[in-house]
Amino acid sequence: KQLEKMGFRIGSRLVDDFCSKNPTVRCKSFTESMKIIATKALPTYLSMGDARLEDWNDDGTSVLLVLPHNPLENWVELPEELEALQYSNLLAGAIRGALEMGNLRGN
Fold first, then answer.
1. pLDDT tens for each residue of 2-28
2. What's the predicted TM-score (pTM) here?
């Protein structure tokens, strides 16, 4: 839970940074926002290829964001007693924080 909260705060700040570096990017819909996140923001801040957007609902208000790989797995080594730690919650929180800064809801 704490990692998700930390990620949320990080994601909130990343939106400000992304917008300051990309002033011409303006999203007018959830669909546009998700495409920018998947093809520009995530590759920039997580040093990975484009994420995929799958399973859009009929009215375009829900989608699955699929990362090409977990960028944390190259850098995280857990001791055996902490193997159950869900460190990827940091990424989920960052994405949720970024979405909420754009007045979008993510879960």
1. 889 998 998 888 888 888 888 777 778
2. 0.76
| Stated length of the chain | 107
Calpha distance 21→53 (Å, rounded): 24
**DSSP per residue over 33-102, as a string?**
HHHHIIIIIHHHHH---PPEEE---TTS---EEE-SS-TTTTT----GGGTT--TTHHHHHHHHHHHHHT
66 CB-near residues (< 8 Å, 6+ apart): 51, 52, 53, 54
Over residues 57-104, the pLDDT tens digits come to 998 888 888 888 877 777 778 888 887 777 788 888 888 888 888 777
CA distance 77 to 36: 31
Would you give the end-to-end CA distance of the chain in angstroms?
13
What would you report as the CA-atom Rg of the chain, rounded to the nearest whole angstrom?
A: 14
Q: What are phi and psi of 54, to 5 degrees?
A: -130, 160
